[in-house]
Design a protein that fits this description.
Number of helices: 14
Strand content: 5-15%
Number of domains: 2
Radius of gyration: 22 Å
Shape: globular
Order of helices and strands: HHHHEHEHHHEEEEEHHHHHH
CATH topology of the largest domain: hpI Integrase, Chain A
Low-confidence stretches: 76-106
Mean pLDDT: 78
Number of strands: 7
Distance between the termini: 60 Å
Largest sheet: 3 strands, antiparallel
Structural class: mainly alpha
Length: 328
């Protein structure tokens, strides 16, 4: 199991599963226990959000540093556990979704269209565990990043256009970036475990892949290659002004600051990767090609995450079906 995945699971166990379910033997676990746990998590999240919006400095200070938890990111799947318990009577429910080791769970992606953005601005509520900007929001962010963080912009552009993971972009090797062929190879990633930064192979077997590049991305990366410092660290493609490798957490912090300064809905850096997939869907790219580009282990993971993210895709599909039916 990937070390970061292990740490995440350990955090879930300490913060949620053990406090709420640890007193129960597994054969005594019932769907109502899981529902209660998730209800408590949601109630706690509501309290933290309300306290952050309070006009009282003391109330805001009381929740400083407390992070809300998105239930969809727990390794326990309440729907699966409840359904399994009901199907098998009082036998042991499965607590984990079936997926390959090291592959993070993903809920359905939520597009940040007008109504959802309005609701976020009014209430501060996050629409879902996996959120993606619209094409217009993505373009506005990249324009803002190019103007205000030109040294980091090429890396963000690559993630937004081709869906690399953060560690894959930070760890991209110069020798694996073939701009003359309009492609690059993912052969390693740079990750953070605790405070330790390490280079290691991609997240899964399918993470080792070749990613095709569009002309705009080739131009951005070509410009980056000509401007970067000569004393780069470890043969990486992207480097800071001093030639050192980007720290993954530093990239995420600067991304969040750019999002806030640009007045855009607060997505995570990883959601740029999700956005790249939805943009590909909107452009009519086959789902199997998107799976290969992202390095997903299964087509089901790609489909379950992205197939319903853009409402206009469903509309186009409906119109396409209607168009082939001959009517008087």
């Amino acid at each position: 199991m990937d070390e970061n995945t292990r740490r995440t699971y350990a955090s879930h166990l300490r913060a949620h599963l053990v406090p709420h379910l640890g007193h129960l033997k597994l054969d005594r676990l019932r769907p109502e226990h899981i529902r209660t746990m998730f209800a408590i998590i949601e109630a706690t999240n509501d309290f933290v959000r309300a306290a952050r919006r309070s006009t009282s400095p003391a109330t805001r200070a009381s929740v400083r540093g407390r992070r809300g938890h998105r239930p969809g990111h727990l390794p326990a799947d309440p729907g699966g556990a409840q359904g399994g318990a009901q199907r098998r009577g009082r036998r042991r429910p499965h607590l984990h979704q079936s997926r390959r080791p090291g592959e993070a769970p993903a809920g359905p992606a939520v597009g940040l269209d007008g109504p959802r953005v309005d609701r976020w601005r009014d209430t501060g509520e996050i629409p879902g565990p996996v959120m993606v900007w619209t094409p217009e929001q993505t373009g506005a962010f990249l324009d803002h990043a190019a103007a205000h963080e030109p040294d980091l912009y090429p890396l963000l552009h690559l993630i937004a256009y081709r869906g690399l993971r953060r560690g894959e972009a930070v760890g991209l090797c110069d020798a694996d970036t073939h701009l003359d062929l309009a492609e690059l190879a993912i052969t390693q990633q740079i990750t953070v475990s605790g405070r330790v930064v390490q280079r290691k192979p991609p997240k899964s077997e399918t993470g080792n892949r070749v990613v095709a590049l569009d002309p705009a991305t080739v131009a951005v990366l070509g410009s980056c290659r000509t401007r970067r410092p000569p004393n780069r660290d470890g043969g990486l493609f992207f480097a800071r002004e001093d030639g050192q490798a980007w720290h993954p957490d530093s990239v995420s912090r600067r991304f969040r600051q750019l999002v806030a300064d640009g007045g855009l809905p607060p997505v995570r850096l990883h959601d740029l990767r999700h956005g790249a997939a939805t943009l590909a869907l909107a452009a009519g790219v086959d789902l199997k090609v998107i799976q290969a580009t992202l390095g997903h282990s299964t087509l089901a993971l790609t489909a379950n995450t992205y197939i319903s993210v853009l409402p206009q895709l469903a509309q186009v599909a409906a119109e396409a079906v209607a168009a082939i039916i001959p009517r008087n």
